[in-house]
Each structure stands twice: as C-alpha cells, then as structure tokens.
Design brief:
Blueprint (H helix, E strand, L loop, with lengths): L4 E3 L2 E3 L1 H13 L5 H12 L10 H13 L32 E2 L2 H4 L2 E5 L6 H11 L11 E8 L2 E10 L5 H7 L3 H7 L3 E9 L3 E2 L3 H21 L5 E6 L7 H5 L3 E5 L18 E6 L4 H6 L4
Parallel strand pairs: 3-8, 7-9
Antiparallel strand pairs: 1-2, 4-5, 5-6, 6-7, 9-11, 10-11
C-alpha cells in the first residue's frame, strides 16, 4: 500500500515522487524554479485565473527535498525577499487644505482601482503616512482603491484575501472545513480604510462602503477570474466603534480569540477585535458551502 503525503491539501503519492525524480533526471539543466514550472504545467496545477501555482509547487518540492524524498539541483542564486526588504513608501505630496462639507454638497465621487497603475504609488504613500497602521504590502490577491472628490484624493480602501481560519466568521457562514478550503478565495477582507485626516464629510465613509459592495466582486472577477460573495473586516473596539460599517449594514459576527495562527499556546497574545461581515449575495451560505469534486 502506497503512503500518501499531503502538501497544502494536495496528496503526493509514491507514483508522484517517482515522476518528480524522473522529471529532475530528464532536465539536468533546469533550475529549481524551472522544474517547478514544468511540474505545474504537467500536472495542470494552476490558480483560478489560469496562472501556474509556481510558488506553492516550489514549496512542495523544497519540502520533499528536505525530507530526502527527492534531490533538487543546487541553488543557483539567492533572491532577496522583497517583503522583508521593503522600503517605506516615498512621500507623495497632495493638497492638504481642509475639506469640510455636507455630503450633498461634496459633488461627484470618483472611485478608482489603482493596483498595477501609476496611482498605486500615491495610494501606498497616503496609507503609510496617514493611516495609524501604516502601509503593509498585501500577500496574495488584493485590490487598492483611491477615492477622489473635487479633483483631490479623499479616501483609500484596501482589500485582500480573507484569513483562512476565523471562528466567528466560519460559524456564521456554516461551512465545513473542505468547503472553507475550496471557497475561502470567494471572500475579501477590508484590511485598510482611510478617510484622509483633513477631510470632514459626514456619511462619506458609509457611502463608500456601499459603493464598494456594488463593484468589488466585478473588479475581483476582472483581475482574478472569480467573484466575491462575502466581505469582512476587523475593528479594534478600544480605538474605534465601527460606526460607518454598521451604518452600511455590516453585521457583527463575533470577536477574535486574540491568538495568531501560529500561537504556541491558547493564551491571548494580541488585542481582541470585533469581526464584522457583509454578504454580497442573498444565497452566500449556499454558494460558499458547495464542495466540488
């Protein structure tokens, strides 16, 4: 009976190991990266947008190499981690003249998705210098939005892939472990929301959350090839009340445990946050609980 290994929920059989060893032997000139790309192509191991799961495959092959189940070629060059070496976003100066108005007098708003555009530099700068958490480079799928009024930036919103494990959220949705693994990509997490400090416009924040709810899924579909059905965020109750989210009909789902995913004990080691969620479709529970194959 063959022993099956598991990496990131993908089974690795003895036949797979034999195939990988043969792939390495047949391509002695390929680097580790080249081998992982070739293996992804053969296995059709791709993301939902069709891109190869190259980094995941490299991680799997490195794990097999360390377990002495395969022998990878020597490392040809060491690539520095751009996240670890990230420099602080450069300051981009903008007009900081106080903007005070009632919402009806503000005029039309323009919401721009700026990831992979020249305006991304401005977005990063505004978060770094005006959000209390600063700018943090997202990992995985993410979108960035700049909001303009009267020709000036007034707000920033950042969205990224949702945390894989979140007890209050998971209980609210009611999905099982397999459905969560397959469908977690259909959730988006609002990691940053900034109304610039010189802007005072009542109801602007809740209005922008409503605009996001109407367009985010289509933008995600355009960028990553799949929709979004549910939104979530964290609120620090010691600092904020989450008034704009509640005004935009976001629901309180529960609280975090105060433990990170790699916490060695069950004791809280960080602040406990409130979890708020917003469903983009009425049948979100049914869609998110479906399991394929």
């Amino acid at each position: 009976m063959q022993t099956t290994l598991i990496y990131r929920h993908r089974p690795i059989s003895e036949d797979d190991l034999v195939f990988i060893r043969q792939l390495i032997a047949d391509h002695p000139g390929l680097s580790r990266r080249g081998l992982s790309k070739r293996l992804c192509e053969v296995w059709n191991w791709v993301q939902t947008n069709g891109a190869l799961r190259d980094m995941v495959c490299r991680g799997m092959m490195l794990m097999l190499h360390r377990e002495e189940l395969i022998e990878l070629p020597p490392v040809r060059r060491v690539v520095r981690n751009p996240l670890a070496d990230r420099r602080q976003p450069a300051l981009v100066r903008v007009d900081e003249t106080p903007l005070q108005a009632i919402f009806a007098e503000l005029g039309p708003l323009e919401v721009r998705q700026v990831r992979r555009t020249p305006e991304e530099r401005l977005f990063n700068s505004l978060l770094e210098h005006h959000h209390y958490l600063g700018y943090s480079q997202p990992v995985g799928e993410h979108l960035k939005y700049l909001v303009y009024a009267r020709g000036r930036p007034v707000a920033c919103l950042a969205w990224c892939s949702a945390p894989r494990h979140l007890g209050s959220r998971d209980r609210f949705i009611g999905w099982g472990p397999q459905a969560r693994r397959q469908n977690i990509r259909l959730l988006a997490y609002n990691t940053r929301f900034l109304i610039l400090p010189w802007v005072t416009v009542p109801h602007l924040a809740s209005h922008l959350l409503g605009q996001m709810a109407r367009r985010l899924s289509a933008d995600w579909q355009s960028m990553y090839g799949h929709p979004i059905y549910f939104l979530e965020t964290f609120i620090e109750p010691q600092r904020f009340r989450g008034t704009c989210y509640r005004a935009a009909n976001w629901q309180f789902l529960g609280t975090t445990t105060g433990r990170g995913k790699d916490a060695p004990t069950h004791a809280a080691n960080r602040s406990i946050k409130e979890v708020l969620g917003y469903a983009l479709v009425k049948d979100f529970r049914q869609r998110l609980s479906q399991v394929s194959g």
